[in-house]
Amino acid sequence: MKELDHLPLPIEHAAALVQLNRFTLDNFVAGYQQRYQRVSAEKIPRGLLQYEKSTSLFTLIEMLYSAIQEESPEAAALLTLLAFLGPWRFDLTTFQLSDLEKRLPGATLTRFDYNHLTEVLTDNVLLLLAVSHLRDICLVKTVGSAMPPEAVSVHNIICQWVFETTVEKEPWILASAAVVSASIHLLRER
After folding, report:
1. Phi and psi (nearest 5°) for 152?
2. How far is Cα 181 from Cα 52, in angstroms, rounded to an integer?
3. CA–CA distance, 7 with 1 (Å, rounded to integer)
4. Which pLDDT does position 51 carry in this prediction?
5. What is the mean pLDDT of the segment spanning 138-150?
6. Does residue 148 share a domain with residue 87?
7. pLDDT at residue 74, as a whole number
8. DSSP line for 37-97
9. Under 8 Å between Cβ of 86 and 159
């Protein structure tokens, strides 16, 4: 707890890493300290860290994001999209877009990201699995029943971390705009 600055969100994230079998309780501190030193050594943009305790949170977000990229690239792509949309609560129907492939700016996203993002946004089962996976490891919060949830949101600090660590932001901004546009278009058709 001391290593995590006694903050609730880092404690939740640490528990999620143990649940994912990434660490045992015995080796978590060593793995965390190694990543913490690396994150601390990086030049973090001025104003991103509001106080020293943010480094512990960013370290855990990085650890969880790495785990989610390995286990479910679709969930990682969805989290990135949600983070670029911002820390608001979104109704899941916003992302259930069967004709989205026609609207996503695929040429701007890397082929890997484009494929996974398209898969998760055009397959309702994959979308629900990705949201469930992200919820289970405390990277998103859901509203409504457990399955299927009605809405999803991302904590502001996770949005900040994703935005700051994503090298090419423009493709994700365009993908976010395409999803919002497609959702508005579908609402008008109904």
Report:
1. -140, 145
2. 38
3. 8
4. 46
5. 81
6. yes
7. 93
8. HHHHHS-PPTTT-SSTTHHHHHHHHHHHHHHHHHH-HHHHHHHHHHHHH-SS-EEGGGG--
9. yes
> Are 58 and 78 members of one domain?
no
Token pair 């919060």: residue: 141
Q: Look at residue 141 and tell me if it is in a domain.
A: yes
CA distance 155 to 35: 21
What is the value of pTM for the model shown? Answer: 0.75
CA distance 138 to 154: 9
Token pair recorded at residue 50: 């509001």
Residue type, 183: S
Which H helix or E strand runs over 142? Answer: strand 141-143
Going by the DSSP 8-state scheme, the letter that residue 151 receives in this structure is E
How far from 31 is each of 2, 11, 18, 158, CA to CA, in Å? 15, 15, 11, 20
